[in-house]
Design a protein that fits this description.
The protein is 13% helix and 32% strand. By secondary structure, the protein is of the alpha/beta class. It folds into 2 domains: 113 residues, Beta Barrel (OB fold (Dihydrolipoamide Acetyltransferase, E2P)); 107 residues, Nucleic acid-binding proteins (OB fold (Dihydrolipoamide Acetyltransferase, E2P)), CATH 2.40.50.
């Protein structure tokens, strides 16, 4: 009899434990999951470019950047000799902050056959450069900013950032214009001043009245007239004439001797 009662007591405990276990499973709250930040955990571009940033990168230092979204890939080759093609422009994911853009020089990718395009979000490892004399000597305090020999790893498909609306006069000086360098911008109600100029397939259009102190040398100090350039797209179909007023121009801010806007296609220009 004692044994039977003991067995019954043990059976009751087992049943109660099972019920408690079920109730525990039904009442448990899921442990909080940690969602990784979409932009990744490495530096953002503006953190290594902004002169006021505590993590501003030094020239020729190795950096790690995550959440860089491709905004343009140069496949146009305006000179038709293979020497003006291949530059990739990237910008911080979802950001319009100044200094959020950079260009990639001689990049490679993982996987090796990856062909990137606008909207691709990448993690990048490479050498941060602010070149002052490649291949010409630039104006004092003006630099060609790029991430050299960068290795990019594809993360996910993202949305291209919306362009930042800026004043065309921002691009007359390097100090005010460099903050938008390699970023997607829009300028409105600008005038083509003078006839297009250039050689070897390159075409430039002045987008402001000539500056009295301007000289032609690449190393001439700023201010300088900003230009519309055909680095990324054929602009000839637009037949832009001297004195034409353009409602809006969207493009990537680039630099070579002066600050420029490079539309990605003729659709970026509203006449």
């Amino acid at each position: 009899m004692h044994l039977a009662r003991l067995l019954s007591f043990c059976a009751s405990l087992t049943l109660l434990a099972g019920v408690a276990s079920c109730e525990s499973r039904e009442g448990d709250q899921p442990s909080p999951s940690v969602v990784p930040p979409p932009a990744g955990k490495d530096h953002r571009i503006h953190e290594i470019r902004d002169p006021e940033s505590p993590t501003k990168a030094a020239h020729e230092s190795q950096v790690a950047v995550s959440g860089a979204v491709v905004i343009a890939v140069d496949r146009f080759d305006e000179t038709q000799n293979g020497r003006s093609i291949g530059t990739i422009y990237v910008q911080d994911l979802g950001s319009k902050e100044p200094y959020s853009g950079i260009s990639l020089y001689n990049p490679s990718f993982i996987p090796g056959n990856l062909r990137v395009g606008p909207g691709d979000a990448l993690d990048l490892r490479g050498q941060f450069q602010e070149n002052q004399d490649i291949p010409l000597k630039f104006a004092p305090g003006a630099f060609l900013v790029q991430l050299a020999n960068a290795v990019g790893t594809f993360r996910f498909d993202a949305n291209e950032p919306d362009p930042v609306e800026i004043d065309i006069k921002d691009l007359e000086t390097y100090e005010t214009g460099s903050k938008w360098l390699n970023m997607l911008v829009t300028v409105k109600n600008v005038t083509v001043n003078g006839k297009p100029f250039g050689s070897g397939g390159r075409r430039s259009y002045n987008l402001a009245a000539p500056i009295e102190t301007e000289q032609r040398g690449c190393d001439t100090p700023f201010p300088k007239v900003p230009t519309l350039v055909n680095s990324l797209a054929d602009l000839e179909p637009l037949q832009l004439a001297e004195g034409a007023t353009v409602k809006s121009i969207t493009g990537v801010v680039t630099f070579f001797c002066n600050l420029q806007i490079a539309p990605r296609s003729v659709k970026d220009i509203v006449l």
